[in-house]
Fold:
Amino acid sequence: MLVGAAGAIAGCGEEDFANEARPAVAKELTGVIQDRGVTVSPDREGAGPFVITISNQTKEPHTVTLKGGEVNEMIPEIKPGGTGSIQKTLEPGSYEVKAGSSRAVAQAIPPGKLTVGEGRKSSNDDLLLP
Structure:
């Protein structure tokens, strides 16, 4: 009876457990809005999850839009001196980070560019992750 119980316990869960790869660790990018343009750094990275934190260094509030492929994410408004974040998983492709304004402006701020390449490695071997 003891041998039968041990065999039953040892076999539990074998069929329905798959050791699938975890996604890549979220990559933290920074961006800045200035009168001369939007900058994202680094501007080239592998596909996967991203957190893009953008600082508004102008004298006007701005909305921020991340566009490319099927992605169209927007931060409603970042006040002068403030920050905002976009958290998104991005596929390979080219993306633009645009700063907009609710007021008419004489000259639009040039958008920042972000190039996303092939996927990053899984985070299976990274320690101390949540």
User: Anything to note?
Assistant: The helical segments are 2-10. The longest strand covers residues 44-56. DSSP finds one helix and eight strands in the chain.
